[in-house]
Write a structure and sequence with these properties.
Chain B: Its EC number is 2.1.-.-. Chain B: Keywords: Methyltransferase, Transferase. Chain B: This is Class I SAM-dependent methyltransferase. The complex is a heterodimer of chains A (115) and B (403). With 115 residues, chain A is an all-alpha fold. Chain A is built from five helices and no strands. The longest helix of chain A is centred in the middle third of the chain and has 33 residues, at 29-61. Chain B is α/β, with parallel strands linked by helices. Chain B contains 15 helices and eight strands. Chain B has helices spanning 26-46, 48-66, 73-80, 84-109, 112-126, 139-142, 163-175, 186-198, 218-224, 237-249, 287-300, 321-327, 329-333, 339-342, 347-353; strands spanning 129-130, 206-210, 229-234, 255-259, 273-279, 301-311, 361-367, 391-398. In chain B, helix 8 (186-198) packs parallel to helix 9. The chains are: A mainly alpha (115), B alpha/beta (403).
C-alpha cells in the first residue's frame, strides 16, 4: 500500500505548514489543536468506515459472505467479553489525561475543610 | 434545522486520470471522499448559519452599541470574528483545506520518484516545455502560500519535482466537489464555446494562457482550436513540468508551456497573440504587477485580439455588505492576500490605463460546462460556495483595430 520513495521521506514534508499567518479562531490556542484533532479523527473514522463498507460489499459480491450474515452476527459469551475489554481499553487510552489527573490527586489530610 | 434536498459530490475515483496522475489507494480515495462531503456540508448545511447568526445576534448587538448599521465588509468581519458560530464554521473550513493539502501531499509524495520519471520521459519525448530556472519568483508568490498549499505552486523538494502540480491536480476535484468535471476543465470548455460560438470572425492562431498552472483550463481551448499555437505561461517550473507531461499524456499536441513572469513578456513580439487568457489568476498577483501585466497583454495582442480574465464578480454597490464579507473570507482565511483589494478595484479603468478602449470592454457570466459522466447537472446554482462555485465573471476587452 505504501511504496516509500527513495529520494525523500514523505513524513518530513506531508505536514508542512503553508507560509502566511494562520488566523486565530479561538481565544485559547489549545482549542485550535482540539478542533484540528477532532476533524482529523472524524476524517480517519470516515476512512475506516469506507474501508469496512468496501470489505463487506466485496465479500458479498464475490459470494464469500452475505452482508446480512454480518448484520445478524451476535457474539457468544467469550467473544462478547473480549469485545467489552477492547472497548474498555480504548476508553482508557483516549481518557489518559483525565486518568492521570485523577492519579495525581492526593487525599486531603483528616480534618481539613473544603476551601 | 431545515435542509434542502441533500446532494453529494461525485466520488473521487471518477476523477479524470492520465499517465502522470498519482495513483490512490482505498484509504486515500476515502479521505478525499470525506473532504469533498465535508466541503459540501460546510457550504450547504452550516454555511447559511453565518447569515443567520449575523441577522439574529451579531448585527442587532452592533446596532445597539453603535446606533447604526455596519458600514463596510471590514466592520462586519470584525464583529463576525467574535461570534462563536462563525468562529467554529471558519475553523472547520480552514482545517478542511489544511487536511486536503495533507491528504494530497501524503498521496503524491509517497510516489514522487515514479511520477517524476514518468513526467520527465513524456516531456522529453514531446518537447513541449521551456523552463527558465533563473526566473526570479515574484513577491506575491514567494511571500505567501496561496490557498494554504504548503510550498505553493513552486517549491521543489527534489530535482525535476512535479509534486506541486500533482497535488493540485488530484485535489482540485475535492475542493470543487467535481463541479468543474473529471478533468477540472469545465471552465475552459465554457471559454472555448464562447470563443467559437459567440464571437464572429474570431479565428485565433496564437493563444496565451497566463498563470496556467497544470493547464486545466487551457487544454479544452487548445482542443477547440487544433490549428492554433497554444502557450501556457507560469512562474513555477514545478507546475509547468506537470502541465507539459499531462498535456502529452492527454494527447494534446498543439500546446507548449513556458516559465515566464507575465510582467515581462518581452520574448513575445508585439501584435503577435490573438487571445490572451487568465482564469482565476489575477487575484493571486498584486495590484502593481497586475497593472504591468495588463500593459504587456495589450502590447502582445494583435489588433482585434481578445483579452479575457475569469474572476469572481467585483464588490460593487449592488453586492450587499454581508455578501461582500462572506466572499472576502478567502482573503483572510485561505491565504489570498490580493483577493479583497482586487474585488473592490475598477478593472475597466485598469484595462483602459493599459490601452484598451472602454468601448471594447466585454463582460459576461461563465458557468462550467457540466460533465456528462459525473452527471452533476447545473453545478453553479444556489448552493454557491462563496467564490468556489464553478461560475465566474468574465471581464476583458478587444484591442483596437489599427486604422
Amino acid at each position: 500500500m505504501t511504496n516509500q520513495t527513495a529520494s525523500i521521506d514523505p513524513f518530513q514534508h506531508v505536514n508542512a505548514k503553508s507560509k502566511g499567518k494562520r488566523p486565530k479562531y479561538f481565544d485559547d490556542p489549545a482549542m485550535e489543536h482540539l478542533m484540528s484533532m477532532n476533524l482529523s479523527l472524524m476524517q480517519e473514522l470516515a476512512v475506516t468506515r469506507e474501508r469496512l463498507d468496501s470489505l463487506e460489499r466485496v465479500m458479498e459480491d464475490t459470494g464469500i459472505l452475505p452482508r446480512s450474515k454480518i448484520e445478524s452476527y451476535r457474539p457468544d459469551t467469550i467473544a462478547a467479553q473480549e469485545r467489552a475489554l477492547a472497548h474498555r481499553k480504548l476508553i482508557s487510552t483516549v481518557l489518559r489525561s483525565v486518568e492521570q489527573e485523577l492519579d495525581g490527586m492526593k487525599p486531603r489530610p483528616e480534618g481539613t475543610a473544603d476551601s | 434545522m431545515t435542509h434542502m434536498k441533500t446532494t453529494t459530490p461525485p466520488p473521487w475515483h471518477l476523477v479524470g486520470k492520465h499517465d502522470v496522475f498519482p495513483e490512490a489507494d482505498l484509504d486515500e480515495i476515502a479521505r478525499f471522499n470525506f473532504l469533498a462531503n465535508m466541503n459540501r456540508y460546510l457550504a450547504e448545511t452550516l454555511g447559511p448559519g453565518n447569515k443567520k447568526t449575523y441577522e439574529t445576534r451579531v448585527k442587532p448587538a452592533f446596532e445597539k452599541r453603535e446606533g447604526r448599521e455596519p458600514a463596510s465588509r471590514h466592520e462586519i468581519r470584525d464583529v463576525m470574528n467574535q461570534d462563536s458560530f462563525h468562529r467554529v464554521w471558519s475553523a472547520l473550513k480552514r482545517n478542511t483545506m489544511e487536511q486536503r493539502q495533507q491528504a494530497g501531499r501524503s498521496l503524491v509524495l509517497r510516489q514522487i520518484d515514479d511520477l517524476v520519471n514518468k513526467a520527465t520521459a513524456l516531456t522529453e519525448e514531446n518537447g513541449n516545455l521551456e523552463l527558465d530556472p533563473s526566473l526570479e519568483l515574484p513577491n506575491y508568490v514567494a511571500g505567501v502560500d496561496h490557498h494554504c498549499m504548503p510550498g505553493s505552486y513552486h517549491t521543489e523538494l527534489i530535482p525535476n519535482d512535479i509534486s506541486a502540480g500533482a497535488n493540485y491536480d488530484c485535489g482540485i476535484f475535492v475542493t470543487t466537489g467535481g463541479a468543474m468535471g473529471r478533468f477540472s476543465d469545465g471552465g475552459g470548455q465554457a471559454l472555448a464555446n464562447f470563443a467559437k460560438n459567440d464571437l464572429k470572425d474570431f479565428h485565433p492562431k496564437r493563444i496565451v494562457d497566463v498563470g496556467c498552472t497544470v493547464g486545466h483550463s487551457l487544454l479544452p481551448i487548445a482542443k477547440a482550436f487544433p490549428d492554433a499555437e497554444v502557450i501556457g505561461i507560469d512562474v513555477s517550473g514545478a507546475v509547468l513540468r506537470y502541465a507539459a507531461a499531462r498535456a502529452a499524456a492527454l494527447d494534446v499536441k498543439n500546446i507548449s508551456f513556458r516559465q515566464l513572469n507575465a510582467e515581462d513578456l518581452s520574448v513575445i513580439p508585439d501584435n503577435s497573440v490573438d487571445w490572451v487568457q487568465t482564469t482565476m489568476f489575477l487575484h493571486e498577483t498584486s495590484e502593481k504587477s497586475m497593472r504591468k501585466m495588463m500593459a504587456e497583454f495589450h502590447r502582445i495582442l494583435t489588433p482585434g485580439g481578445l483579452m479575457l480574465h475569469l474572476e469572481q464578480p467585483s464588490y460593487d454597490d449592488s453586492v450587499p455588505l454581508f455578501e461582500q464579507f462572506i466572499r472576502d473570507w478567502d482573503a483572510f482565511n485561505n491565504n489570498e492576500p490580493f483577493w479583497t483589494r482586487l474585488h473592490e478595484m475598477d478593472l475597466v479603468a485598469v484595462m483602459e490605463e493599459a490601452g484598451f478602449h472602454k468601448s471594447s470592454h466585454v463582460e459576461f457570466k461563465v458557468k462550467a460546462v457540466p460533465d456528462p459522466v459525473l452527471a452533476t447537472g447545473d453545478v453553479s446554482g444556489k448552493s454557491e460556495d462563496h467564490g468556489r462555485a464553478a461560475a465566474w465573471h468574465a471581464m476583458g476587452a478587444r484591442k483596437e483595430m489599427k486604422g
